[in-house]
Automatic annotation (TrEMBL):
Residues 645-721, 764-832 form the ACT domain. Residues 464-565 form the HD domain. It catalyses: [protein-PII]-L-tyrosine + UTP = [protein-PII]-uridylyl-L-tyrosine + diphosphate; [protein-PII]-uridylyl-L-tyrosine + H2O = [protein-PII]-L-tyrosine + UMP + H(+). This is Bifunctional uridylyltransferase/uridylyl-removing enzyme. Modifies, by uridylylation and deuridylylation, the PII regulatory proteins (GlnB and homologs), in response to the nitrogen status of the cell that GlnD senses through the glutamine level. Under low glutamine levels, catalyzes the conversion of the PII proteins and UTP to PII-UMP and PPi, while under higher glutamine levels, GlnD hydrolyzes PII-UMP to PII and UMP (deuridylylation). Thus, controls uridylylation state and activity of the PII proteins, and plays an important role in the regulation of nitrogen metabolism. The keyword Zinc does not apply. PANTHER family: BIFUNCTIONAL URIDYLYLTRANSFERASE/URIDYLYL-REMOVING ENZYME, BIFUNCTIONAL URIDYLYLTRANSFERASE_URIDYLYL-REMOVING ENZYME. Coiled coil: none annotated. Residues 1-11 have a biased composition (Polar residues). Gene3D superfamilies: cca-adding enzyme, domain 2 (1.10.3090.10).
Length: 841
């Protein structure tokens, strides 16, 4: 930190021919301080002995001890020299340290940042004292940043220059009139606290500009330890916010989090930078690859990969802390004028036990983390879906009070995990927050082996754990390409989970996928499918780029490896693209895409087509109840804490499916799966639902409203539109205190697939799209308006994605115009793709 960035700002006297912060002139002032050169030479010799330790006479100090020894050495010299020059308690002078010396973080080749304060002393005398203090240091070739000021001058500079203000916030008295130093320190801090509202935006913009220039320490091959995102400047930024009384200096983290918390991460970064100075033999902030092994060995961390992992962990902890600190500080800014009269922010419900308050996701007042293990995932899913960050206090409360999820997980917990992963790039920040606070590792204990694990080849941009999350984010955009979007995003998250354990990571990962899949509560067949994807996730790209695709044996080898499973092939194709895109720029291009696509096409030809969707069998008891021709609605728990089964039996008339689905949506019952069929003149529709909030309504109320809807007394579509607008109106627009209605953007484009039915005039339509409030009701209405008779339907909601199959009887089933009309009607009611956002690197 430069306490005086430009010499022109220094209004106090400086040595002849010099400006504040500059080095000595080529030939000036030597006679004035010739007698002081020997004293400075002693300082240089002592510094040299400290840095050259390790021989028989001098013990090599470790990094923390070396910093403390350098602080003691420079303070001793400066206090001794100050006393010799008459800088005493009653002299009207004070010497103040800023920068590393003030923070007691003196590095081997750090600049010496000093401010000489005087109480309107005679300029000639001030110049003499300054000459005799600065020249010995210059003559000894010690890097010096200095200024000479009165207290009002220094405070005025801090009020105008943000960089100078940040430096003087750390000021510490060394020698002389301590009251003078206290006036400066107190004045600068008081000015900082009172003026922070007007300077906060500049402070944030300065930090972002620095991050843009220097990048993220956690994901750079040669990181800037001082200025990079997650570096030492960010720790100083947190201290400045704490001095402004806007946030805690250690926000949102405790000692039990991965990496040991913010203080430990700060010390680690300091230790690495200390050894970097010692190895380089000069001041340096950027860690070069060729120095990493030596620094890792000196700190007893390991080789360059172990050092990179340590730096990633520390930098990501600091980066998360800064995000929390800036957000907390922004909410705590003092209000002025009419803004003081603004109402206290309301608490807007997002999910069961989860609300938005003051731009953060927090727990509802009646939430009970100690009795609700699934609350962690509901909070994270709500954060990712709304792009609203989770409050640090909420994460701490969950970390301290939430019990472990029972195994296998309840279905609603798995569904919340899928919703989180389906949120695309919004999921990255949510998962990072969970990970930095120890919650992600509680959900996935296997994650510890890949956390902050550095890549072994240069083509990878991210650490292994971040690569997995990036792959899941890309895969969420491909969920409509596959029939099992839930397995796709889970496999994307786990495909490299076997790394960091030795052996073939695909084989190790496949075993771990079985372990994780069983814990998540997947069906045994889905566990096997997940394990197979992890085992073979490199099969398509490696075969396509290294083997002859014209050789039938090449294609047959892939088909044999996959046991002819077309679903597995489909999922591996989507994962191959997501994995490549998440690896780094240029890994996935037209050449690789065409090769993999051609391999998949030839494998499909050998495997002979896709599977045809089929309806679920009817329950004999329900068939018996349908014989009376009445309207029946039953509701019973399905096994999970927030999952219920609703069975609707009613006369089979056009519009029944849309009416039943609309009534469920109006009561905030999210349809997780549905089976629609019939027996005789009655329809039997079974819905597995999850209430958005609280408990479901009584079955009798659902039956009454269904009868009203069937009679035409309820305009369900209009009521759903109003409910959707009301929900959107309650969500805040990021960056403002107002609310707005966001567009219904999806991660992936919807996809429609047509199959020929088993009877004349019947077709089967499969829709893969993202979920929306009342989407099943809207789809059924759209099909009914196009004259389609829904014979049966099979509906599945997997996280934020839906895979719905409808068997339709059409007047002209083979007409291309008829099918196109149905497609247009369906695409009008499902979420459309969101515009692409730039990827942060």
């Amino acid at each position: 930190m430069r306490s005086d960035p430009t010499g022109s700002q220094n209004n106090g006297p400086v040595p002849a021919g010099k400006s504040a912060g500059a080095g000595p002139p080529a030939s000036s002032g030597g006679s004035v301080v010739a007698s002081s050169s020997d004293a400075a030479a002693d300082l240089v010799r002592a510094r040299t002995q400290l840095l050259d330790g390790g021989d028989a006479r001098h013990r090599r100090l470790d990094a923390p001890a070396l910093r403390q020894a350098l602080v003691d050495l420079h303070e001793f010299w400066l206090t001794t020299k100050g006393a010799e020059l008459g800088i005493k308690p009653d002299s009207g002078f004070a010497l103040v340290a800023v920068g590393g010396l003030a923070r007691r973080e003196m590095l081997p080749y750090s600049d010496l940042d000093l401010v000489l304060l005087h109480d309107d002393v005679d300029p000639k005398h001030v110049s003499e004292v300054a000459d005799q203090l600065w020249y010995p240091l210059w003559d000894a070739h010690i890097k010096l940043d200095h200024s000479v000021r009165t207290v009002p001058q220094a405070i005025q500079v801090a009020a105008k220059d943000l960089t100078a203000a940040l430096g003087m916030l750390e000021a510490r008295h060394l020698v002389g009139d301590e009251e003078l130093s206290n006036l400066l320190i107190g004045g600068v801090r008081r000015e900082w606290r009172t003026g922070i509202r007007s300077r906060f935006d500049e402070l944030v913009e300065q930090a972002r500009a620095r991050w843009s220039r220097s990048g993220e320490i956690a994901h750079r091959a040669e990181p800037d330890l001082k200025n990079g995102r997650g570096g030492l400047r960010d720790v100083q930024l947190l201290d400045a916010l704490a001095i402004a009384q806007l946030t805690d200096a250690v926000p949102g983290l405790g000692p039990e989090v991965p990496g040991g918390g913010l203080d430990y991460s700060h010390r680690r970064l300091l230790d690495v930078r200390t050894e970097l100075h010692r190895v380089a033999g000069r001041a340096r902030d950027q860690l070069r690859a060729q120095d990493a092994d030596e620094i890792g060995a000196a700190l007893r961390i390991g080789d360059r990969f172990d050092l990179a992992r340590t730096l990633s962990d520390s930098a990501r902890t600091v980066s998360y802390s800064v995000d929390v600190g800036l957000r907390t500080a922004g909410n705590a800014l003092p209000r002025r004028g009419l803004s003081r009269l603004r109402r206290v922010p309301v608490r807007r419900p997002l999910d069961e036990g989860v609300v938005e308050h003051a731009g953060e996701v927090v727990l509802a007042r009646d939430a009970q983390p100690t009795k609700d293990p699934g609350l962690i995932l509901r909070v994270a899913a709500a954060s990712a879906q709304t792009e609203i960050p989770m409050a640090a206090t909420t994460l701490n409360r969950l970390s301290e009070g939430s019990p472990e999820l029972r195994e296998p997980w309840p279905k609603e917990a798995l569904n919340d995990l899928l919703v989180l992963l389906d949120s695309g790039r919004n999921a990255i920040a949510a998962i990072e927050a969970l990970d930095r606070t120890g919650l992600w590792g509680r959900l996935l204990p296997e994650w510890g082996a890949v956390r902050d694990l550095p890549p072994r080849d240069a083509v990878h941009t991210w650490t292994v754990d971040r690569h997995l999350v990036e792959t899941a984010a890309y895969a969420s955009g491909f969920t409509t390409r596959v029939s099992r979007p839930d397995i796709l995003v889970l496999s994307a998250l786990l495909h490299d989970i076997g790394k960091g354990r030795g052996g073939d990571h695909s084989v190790v990962g496949a075993e771990l996928a079985i372990q994780i899949g069983n814990r998540l509560g997947l069906w045994p067949t889905d566990v096997a499918l997940l394990s197979a994807i992890v085992r073979h996730h490199l099969l398509l790209p490696e075969t396509a780029t290294r083997r002859d695709l014209d050789d039938p044996a090449t294609v047959q080898s892939v088909v044999d490896a996959l046991d002819g499973d077309t679903m597995l092939l489909e999922l591996l194709h989507a994962l191959a693209e997501a994995d490549s895109l998440a690896t780094g720029p240029g890994v996935w291009g037209d050449w690789k895409s065409s090769l993999v696509g051609e391999l998949v096409r030839r494998c499909r030809m050998v495997m002979a087509g896709d599977r045809l969707p089929t309806p679920d069998p009817l329950d004999p008891e329900q068939v018996e109840r349908a014989a009376d021709g009445g309207v029946h609605v039953d509701l019973r728990p399905e096994g999970g804490q927030h999952t219920f089964v609703v069975t609707v039996i009613a006369p089979d008339k056009p519009g029944l499916l849309s009416d039943a689905a609309g009534v469920l949506a109006l009561h905030s019952l999210r349809v997780l799966s549905a089976s629609v069929g019939g027996s005789g003149d009655s329809a039997i529709n079974t819905f597995v639902v999850s209430p958005k909030f609280g408990s479901p309504p009584p079955a009798g109320l659902l039956r009454q409203e269904l009868i009203r809807a069937m009679a035409g007394d309820l305009d369900l579509l209009k009521m759903l539109e109003k409910k959707e607008r009301d929900a959107a109106d309650s969500q805040p627009v990021r960056g403002s205190g107002e609310t707005g209605v966001p567009m219904l953007y999806a991660q992936a484009p919807p996809r429609l697939i047509w199959f020929d039915g088993t009877e004349p005039g019947e077709v089967i339509l499969e829709l893969r799209a993202e979920d929306r409030l009342g989407v099943l009701c809207r789809l059924a209405k759209a099909l009914e308006k196009r004259g389609a008779d829904i014979r049966w339907a099979k509906v599945s909601t997997m996280g934020s994605a839906v895979v719905d199959s409808f068997c339709l009887r059409l007047a002209d089933a083979d007409s291309r115009a008829t099918r196109q009309g149905i497609e247009v009607a369906i695409l009008a009611v499902v979420p459309s793709p969101r515009p692409p956002k730039p990827v942060d690197t």
